[in-house]
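Render this sequence as a predicted structure.
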Amino acid sequence: MNSRHTPEDHAALIRRYFAACNAGDYEALVDCFTPDAVHYFPPGLPEVPWRGADTIARKWVWCVQTLGSQWTIERIIVSHDSPEAMIEWTHWKNKSGTALRGAEWYDFDPATGRIAEIRAYYASPANPETPINELAGFDYSGRGYHLGSL
């Protein structure tokens, strides 16, 4: 790992990325990524994967404006010896009163420290009949996860 970018730097960048998502801040979002970054998703969403910092930023701004999206980070684990991290998150879709839980794997560009790739994994397929899509039987409350929208 490039000694300029520590695990603490990577965790801070993920938190900055989520703050930019929640703010719907296009410029701050672009600044988190390499220009050619890729964000992968499970099947079912249109136009995936999202390729390029511009596309990723525009799509998240759209989600905030259209769905009332907000995100919480539930857990972060950052590698001590390679430029990668794993998080669990909740995506609160406030306009529909639903939420989706999942996890993401992050690869960081060693030269710049920016996000080069995100691989998102959902707890379950997004089910429009379910108010909060999450793992069946998992004790979200007992483990300290957020239980309501922001």
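Summary. The radius of gyration is 15 Å. The mean pLDDT is 91.
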